[in-house]
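In the design runs reported in the main text, the only information available to the sequence generator was the tokenized backbone. The following block is the verbatim input for one such run; it is reproduced so that readers can re-run the procedure and compare outputs position by position.
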């Protein structure tokens, strides 16, 4: 618990609150609102155990989430996790929820035997970058990231 924020693993029972936060996350990254799509996407991830989602709540309700996808490092021959999504509702920012989610994700990954957590963020998302760096995350200066678009929606 950090500053009145509690973190726990999300379940299908959290889907309604989680979908609202996830839709807000997508809109932050300039995607069109799609609450039904957010709900379906998250339901699929949770039902198929394809990701691990942690939910941050305060006295009022759900205020943020993070979603981890399992992966591996071939060079290191070990498990890793990709911290793919992290979002705190605008009205709840500055209260420690983001930092608490990052610490909880790191503890979970460590307990799962993971050697590393990896995340990407927008180049102009300086607020999030400051939180990551304050929590001990280091910017990768050794590798460039490339993407190849395969399908358009």
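Verbatim output:
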């Amino acid at each position: 618990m950090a500053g009145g924020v509690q973190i726990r693993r999300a379940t299908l029972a959290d889907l309604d609150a989680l979908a609202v936060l996830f839709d807000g996350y997508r809109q932050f990254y300039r995607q069109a609102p799609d609450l039904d799509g957010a709900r379906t996407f998250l339901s699929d991830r949770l039902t198929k155990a394809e990701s691990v989602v942690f939910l941050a709540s305060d006295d009022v309700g759900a205020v943020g989430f993070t979603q981890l996808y399992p992966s591996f490092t071939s060079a290191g021959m070990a498990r890793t996790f990709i911290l793919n999504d992290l979002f705190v509702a605008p009205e709840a920012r500055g209260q420690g929820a983001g930092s608490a989610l990052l610490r909880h994700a790191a503890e979970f990954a460590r307990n799962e035997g993971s050697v590393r957590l990896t995340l990407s963020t927008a180049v102009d998302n300086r607020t999030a970058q400051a939180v990551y760096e304050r929590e001990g995350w280091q910017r990768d200066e050794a590798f460039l990231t490339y993407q190849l678009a395969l399908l358009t929606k």
